[in-house]
């Protein structure tokens, strides 16, 4: 008897870590749900204990970081990166000597994160320089 290299139907449902895709989706959903509730509790406590001026400063301070989180983590960047990365993984399977991703996939990831580092570093330096101008010359 020869063994097939394809997994059986029961094995196809299993994902990394031995959990099914539905189980992983449930865990992700519960994490998102609890995060939303904790955010609501945080905002309620902030509004109860602090005055409007403090809460406005809090919201303003987190506006730019939240924008980048939405853009990079939840937005167009993840929508464009994940399909390209998945296609590369399918086209160039894990054939490196270390057992990790192929050279083509590693080059794509390295190039992507290098570009991301350059863009975010430039934005950070720009805003730091701009903040020093406003601190040194307030009027």
Order of helix and strand elements from N to C terminus:
HHHHHH
- Total number of beta strands: 0
Helix content: over 70%
What is the general shape?
flat
Q: Give the DSSP E fraction (strand runs of 2 or more residues).
A: under 5%
Q: How large is the radius of gyration?
A: 23 Å
Mean pLDDT rating: 78
N- to C-terminal separation?
A: 85 Å
Which class do the helix and strand fractions yield?
A: mainly alpha
**SS summary, helix count:** 6
Count of separate structural domains: 2
Give a quick account of the main beta sheet: strands, pairing sense, barrel closure: none
Report the uncertain regions: 11-16
Task: Provide structural commentary.
The structure is a single chain. This protein is mainly alpha-helical and 139 residues long. 76% of the residues lie in helices and 0% in strands. It has six helices and no strands. It has helices at 9-12, 21-49, 52-61, 63-74, 76-91, 103-136. The model is unreliable at 11-16 (pLDDT under 50).
Q: What keyword list fits this structure?
A:
mainly alpha, 139 residues, 6 helices, 0% strand, single chain, 2 domains, flat
Set down the secondary structure blueprint.
Blueprint: H1 9-12, H2 21-49, H3 52-61, H4 63-74, H5 76-91, H6 103-136
Helix pairs in contact: 4-5
Concise account of the structure shown:
The chain is mostly helical and 139 residues long.
């Amino acid at each position: 008897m020869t063994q097939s290299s394809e997994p059986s139907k029961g094995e196809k449902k299993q994902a990394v870590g031995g959990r099914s895709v539905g189980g992983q989706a449930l865990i992700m959903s519960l994490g998102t749900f609890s995060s939303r509730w904790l955010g609501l509790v945080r905002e309620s406590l902030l509004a109860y204990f602090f005055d409007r001026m403090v809460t406005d400063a809090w919201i303003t301070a987190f506006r730019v970081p939240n924008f980048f989180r939405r853009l990079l983590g939840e937005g167009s960047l993840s929508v464009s990166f994940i399909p390209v990365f998945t296609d590369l993984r399918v086209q160039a399977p894990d054939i490196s000597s270390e057992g990790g991703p192929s050279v083509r996939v590693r080059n794509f990831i390295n190039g992507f994160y290098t570009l991301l580092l350059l863009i975010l570093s430039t934005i950070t330096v720009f805003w730091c320089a701009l903040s020093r101008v406003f601190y040194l010359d307030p009027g």
